[in-house]
Specification:
949 residues; mainly alpha; 0% strand
């Protein structure tokens, strides 16, 4: 039971009406005559008005309009004998119900005619038309036109219109917005006894926008509104139940009134008010109150079955997600279809996400496109629906991209003010330049989007000015656009600036502030980076809870989630900020790929094709790469070009054909590789020309292009590209891998290089920066004399560094040096011993072999075999094969053909091709095992396959 009204100014309403500015005394007196009870604090209501009462005994059912025709098909050529029936039909079509689907287009058509027609209810028609023009479901919201119709209705003394027009003024939605006018309109409605006007005036007073108004006066307004509604309730008008509950649930009007409000919502729901059921469900879903899932679903179901369109959509979403209800995809689809049929475009959008596979079901892109197409036909569809259709067509609904259709939908979205669509169009035209009407169109679109503050466009402009075939390289422009993009909250630009290693705390704070703004706008990638910033304390105080909260927000279902999943997966794969975790990364990529994200499918495909020993996984990787490649992605094409012919059979193309396709699609590396690999000079020249026409952006590509020219006697161009690579390294981050490549090609004389010392200096820089490959190259080069004079001591130094850095291959190099008599051999053996004692399997193997064979020390077969056994037990296949040979000859161990073959089998099972061949031979001859021709043949086939890989 409602035990208290709002605390008043202490005036007993039985005796004196309080002064309430703008509310006429007659209206107040009327309300007070109906309720001669004091309203100051702690005043109980009569039992008949308690929310627990049985209102079915006093409620008068609202008269149901009787339609004698189907007004949804009416047009101006048909007569209108009864404007009131036409008006009732318009109201039904605008709101929907259990027996009539919502049809805002029909409602608008009827109301526009009624607003122009001379009849007694013309003011109501203007009000309803103005209200409809403010509802997104009825089409693009038009506040100015709505204000015109509402003002016309106000002139006809329609107080509901007065309240709604006041709201437009209060919220600044129209050009003539004026808070004073909002106050005047609300006072007029209040004076006429309009409850919404009374409560609207109370809200305006509480906002503080019309000066200081005593709290008690505002509380009295709220009490007056409630008492007016109680009066209506006493007259059997049970719609007042919902309105009472709505006032009490507003904490700004009735602090702490939610508990009491819910009792009134329950009372309204018992009388069959679907809006009350929906309100209760949303209170529970928002976490403002707690209830069991079946209670929530019960409210939603009753509201949906009563024809409440929003309830249909919310119920469908809950059933689709399995949130607060058992997951039931079939029922979810039914309710979402019904919501869509009631002109809810967001329901169709949710259906499209379901058909795209975002909620775990199999993809059906045709149905996804159909759902979005139906949504786009509704008057209230948003630009995101057009963008969704564009992306579906761009990726290919039936496996074949439709660039023309995609551009059409992007243009429609852009024409309606969606700035991101300009950027998406530019991206599509950059990938498919043949679709552009003019070559400069992508840059024009990007600059327009950037000028309208689109961070993605700014970031892309930075990329293009850094290196592209679209515009000449301009480092100043690239830097300016990168910084603008970062300041605008572009996640990848912020990441790029952070990777440049700046230690400026002020810059870090600015970047984090930009990330926060972007995250609050809903950018999922920014949420991930913001989470990292909170975790690391980069530009903000360390806050683990905030870090977890932002990461959870980034991964919540919804638009943009797949981009967050891909970014997080890449971080896990690259060990950025945390340990490398391929399993967790794959799980994230699987989720994003299920949502039809091309970037996720590409990353997942590359990950899976690397699983050589798992044919099913590798085959799925090929499928994913093929799907992305057929949409025009040159990176996916190049990834396919690196696979074996057998794996590529399902794609219908050879590796060479995929590489050529990648080059034709604009992949620079593919063109360079083709130029390097062909033996035909004319073919090489063609691919070199293609590479020169494409953006050669990385020092690595410049080096490879230099080598390609060197092979075709193009010394001058080879030298030019090598110098560009050197300049790139000097001006940017000194990547150890690139430093090594430059040094190596210089040693080989590429571009007519004559200074071997300069080449060695590059390799040493790489080695000193931790590049193991460079350490190994120097060690072997000093042994062979390739990098200068033969220098065993220097070789041992570099090889030992490589070994200590985990390079397994150099253990054999040190073993060979150990075989040379003298101090240097002893030094090499000592290094191997140290490595063996540290438990490094290759070190144990080579130290064991050295002891077996007497390298640097007298031969110790037993001790050597013991070290080999340790290495083999640690999984070293080379040691397993050495042990197999030892048992076959009885050297340092007992003579045992069986033990020899067992170790051979372990090496074969570990994937060693040589061991597979030898095991096949042993099974054929019956050496250490029974003769088994079929098993021998299987091992032979496996060996051949392993050798090919």
């Amino acid at each position: 039971m409602m035990k208290t009204l709002i605390r008043s100014n202490g005036t007993n309403l039985n005796k004196t009406a309080p002064r309430m500015p703008g509310v006429c005394a007659a209206a107040v007196a009327t309300a007070l005559m109906m309720f001669a009870a004091p309203v100051h604090a702690q005043v109980p209501l009569t039992r008949s008005l308690a929310p627990s009462a049985d209102f079915s005994k006093i409620c008068t059912p609202l008269p149901q309009p009787k339609l004698t025709r189907d007004w949804s098909k009416w047009d101006k050529s048909q007569p209108v004998p009864d404007p009131d029936e036409m008006y009732d039909a318009a109201v039904l079509y605008s709101e929907g119900g259990s027996g009539v689907a919502r049809d805002p287009v029909a409602a608008r058509r009827l109301l526009e005619d009624l607003a122009d027609r001379a009849w007694a209810g013309r003011g109501r028609a203007h009000f309803r038309l103005g209200k409809l023009l403010l509802e997104p479901v009825a089409g693009p919201v038009d506040p100015e036109r709505a204000a015109y119709h509402l003002a016309t209705a106000v002139s006809m003394l329609n107080m509901d219109a007065s309240v709604l027009l006041a709201k437009l003024h209060e919220q600044g939605q129209i050009s003539t917005a004026n808070v004073a006018e909002a106050e005047r309109l609300l006072r007029a409605a209040s004076a006429a006894g309009n409850v919404d006007g009374i409560i609207g005036l109370a809200r305006l007073q509480r906002s503080g926008r019309i000066g200081d108004v005593p709290q008690a006066a505002t509380s009295d307004l709220v009490n007056l509104g409630l008492q007016t509604l109680y009066g209506e309730l006493g007259q059997g008008k049970c719609r007042a139940l919902f309105e009472i509950a709505s006032i009490l649930s507003d904490d700004s009007l009735v602090p702490g009134g939610l508990t009491e409000a819910m009792k009134w919502f329950e009372a309204a729901a018992r009388q069959g008010d679907p809006k009350a059921d929906l309100a209760l469900a949303e209170i529970y879903l928002e976490g403002r109150a707690k209830a069991a899932p079946d209670i929530i679903i019960g409210h939603l179901t009753r509201a949906a079955e009563a024809g409440e369109p929003r309830a249909m959509a919310v119920l469908g979403e809950r059933l689709l997600l399995g949130d607060r209800a058992p997951k039931d995809v079939g029922k979810a689809v039914v309710w979402l279809e019904r919501a869509g049929a009631n002109a809810d475009p967001e329901a169709y959008k949710l259906l499209a996400r379901h058909y795209r596979g975002e909620f775990g079901e199999a993809q059906n892109l045709s149905k996804a496109a159909d759902a979005l197409t139906r949504a786009s036909a509704l008057p209230g569809h948003t630009t995101s629906i057009l963008v969704g259709l564009a992306r579906l067509h761009a990726s290919g609904i039936d496996g074949q991209p439709d660039i023309k259709a995609a551009l059409t939908f992007y243009r429609r979205a852009a024409d309606r003010g969606d700035i991101g669509s300009l950027t998406d169009m530019a991206k599509l035209l950059l990938a498919h330049p043949q679709a552009a009407s003019q070559s400069e169109e992508p840059m024009r679109l990007l600059k327009e989007a950037a000028g309208r503050s689109n961070p993605e466009a700014m970031g892309l402009l930075a990329d293009l000015y850094t290196c592209s075939a679209v515009v000449p390289q301009d480092s100043a422009q690239a830097k300016a656009w990168l910084e603008r993009a970062a300041e605008a909250g572009h996640a990848r630009s912020i990441n790029a600036l952070a990777s440049q290693g700046t230690s400026d705390p002020a810059a870090a704070q600015r970047m984090t502030a930009a990330l926060l703004q972007a995250a609050e706008r809903g950018d999922r990638e920014s949420m991930i980076l913001l989470s990292d910033a909170y975790r690391a304390g980069h530009g903000v105080a360390v806050d683990e809870k905030a870090a977890e909260r932002w990461r959870a927000a980034a991964l919540m279902p919804g638009e943009g989630r797949s981009r967050a999943l891909v970014l997080l997966a890449r971080k896990l794969m690259n060990a950025e900020g945390e340990a490398r975790d391929e399993i967790a990364a794959r799980k994230l990529l699987e989720e994003a790929a299920q949502e039809n994200d091309a970037a996720a499918q590409l990353e997942l495909g590359r990950l899976l094709v690397g699983k050589r020993g798992q044919s099913t996984e590798a085959a799925r990787g090929i499928q994913l790469l093929h799907k992305v490649a057929t949409s025009g992605n040159s990176v996916a094409m190049l990834a396919l070009a690196e696979q074996s012919g057998e794996q590529l059979q399902p794609t219908g193309k050879t590796a060479l054909e995929w590489r050529k396709a990648a080059a034709d699609a604009g992949n620079t590396r593919a063109a360079i590789t083709l130029a390097s690999s062909t033996k035909d000079d004319a073919e090489a020249a063609r691919w070199l020309a293609r590479a020169e026409a494409l953006p050669v952006c990385t020092a690595r590509d410049m080096i490879d292009l230099s080598q390609a020219y060197h092979k075709t006697a193009g010394v001058e161009r080879a030298s030019s590209w090598l110098k560009r690579a050197q300049n790139e390294v000097q001006s940017g981050a000194r990547d150890p891998a690139v430093l090594f490549l430059i040094g190596r090609v210089m040693v080989e004389g590429v571009g007519g290089t004559t200074s071997k010392q300069e080449a060695v200096d590059y390799i040493k820089l790489s080695a000193d920066a931790g590049r193991v490959e460079a350490m190994r190259y120097l060690g072997r080069g000093y042994v062979s004399g390739q990098v200068g004079e033969h220098n065993t001591s220097a070789a041992i130094g570099w090889l030992s560094k490589a070994l200590r850095s985990g390079d397994a291959s150099v253990a054999a190099d040190l073993s060979r040096i150990a075989a040379v008599p003298g101090n240097e051999g002893a030094e090499a053996l000592a290094i191997l011993k140290e490595s063996a004692e540290r438990g490094f399997a290759p070190g144990m193997r080579e130290y064991g072999r050295s002891l077996q064979l007497g390298f640097g020390v007298p031969a110790q077969p037993e001790a050597g075999a013991a070290w080999l056994r340790k290495a083999a037990d640690a999984g070293d296949t080379g040691a397993m094969k050495e042990l197999s040979r030892a048992y076959a000859s009885g050297y340092g161990v007992e003579l045992s053909a069986r033990a020899s073959t067992e170790w051979l089998q372990r090496a074969a099972q570990a994937g060693d091709a040589e061991a597979m061949y030898n095991l096949s031979l042993a099974m054929t001859l019956g050496f250490g095992t029974e003769v088994n021709a079929s098993a021998a043949q299987e091992w032979l086939k496996t060996a051949e396959g392993a050798a090919r890989k």
